[in-house]
Amino acid sequence: AQSVAQPEDQVNVAEGNPLTVKCTYSVSGNPYLFWYVQYPNRGLQFLLKYITGDNLVKGSYGFEAEFNKSQTSFHLKKPSALVSDSALYFCAFDTGTASKLTFGTGTRLQVTL
Amino acid sequence: SQTIHQWPATLVQPVGSPLSLECTVEGTSNPNLYWYRQAAGRGLQLLFYSVGIGQISSEVPQNLSASRPQDRQFILSSKKLLLSDSGFYLCACLDRGLRTEAFFGQGTRLTVV
Questions:
Q1: Which of B90, B101, B106 minimises the CB distance to A46?
Q2: Does B34 sit within 8 Å of A101, measured CB to CB?
Q3: Contact A45 B104 (CB under 8 A)
Q4: What single-letter DSSP state applies at residue B43?
Q5: How close, in Å, is residue A5 to chain B by CA atoms?
Q6: Integer Cα distance of A11 and A68 in angstroms
Q7: pLDDT tens string A44-92
Q8: Are A6 and A26 in contact (CB under 8 A)?
Q9: Residues of A in contact with B105 (CB under 8 A)
Q10: Nearest to A107, CA basis, from A42, A26, A16, A24
């Protein structure tokens, strides 16, 4: 079955340090890949997407992600973390037919002073 | 831009009672619509999706049903709630016109007692 995997339940990082939240995919064809963020008791907010083209995608709030086809990965990165980045992050995919938008299990990011 | 209205924000219902959660969308036509459930602040489980009026696809067998009586209205229902139906329910909308990211409602926290 097609899926995305987020191997880390939680990532801890100090403010000012770079952060990486991992995502790998198992999707046939050319997947559309996304990152979303969720703050407590709220809906999800879109961060960035990869559809085609440049493998490095830049998104909201200084986040970026790199599509790596050989490693089937789409890791989320930020050069310098902020305490306000603390939230739940979801990787997601759909197959371009726009019917099923499927999410990973989520990674909780905790940024401390 | 798209706006999703989801209500109520919180709901406490007794076991065996019926359920109706409503989601309406503004700012787009003929969107794909989704219902997700999130348990304990973790992963999102896709419950139903719809690509058009009256077209509902169910992802998991369960005590819930969905309907799309109008283009921008998506309803999640149950005839008799179970304790296991408790969770955070999110409605989402995806427009393949100019943009490919999904927009989410603010969610409904359902507690079945």
A1: B101
A2: yes
A3: yes
A4: P
A5: 11
A6: 21
A7: 999 999 988 889 999 999 999 999 999 999 999 999 999 999 999 999 9
A8: no
A9: 43
A10: A24
Alpha-carbon span A78 to A102, nearest angstrom: 24
- What's the token pair of residue A109? 């990011």
pLDDT digits (tens, 9 = 90+) for B32-81: 999 999 987 678 899 999 989 999 998 876 789 999 999 999 999 999 99
Beta strands A102-103 and B44-52, pairing class? unpaired
Mean pLDDT of B14-34: 93
Q: What is the CA radius of gyration of chain A?
A: 13
CB of B56 within 8 Å of a chain A CB? The answer is no
Contacts A45 to B, Cβ<8 Å: 104
B14 at interface of A, judged by CB pairs closer than 8 A:
no
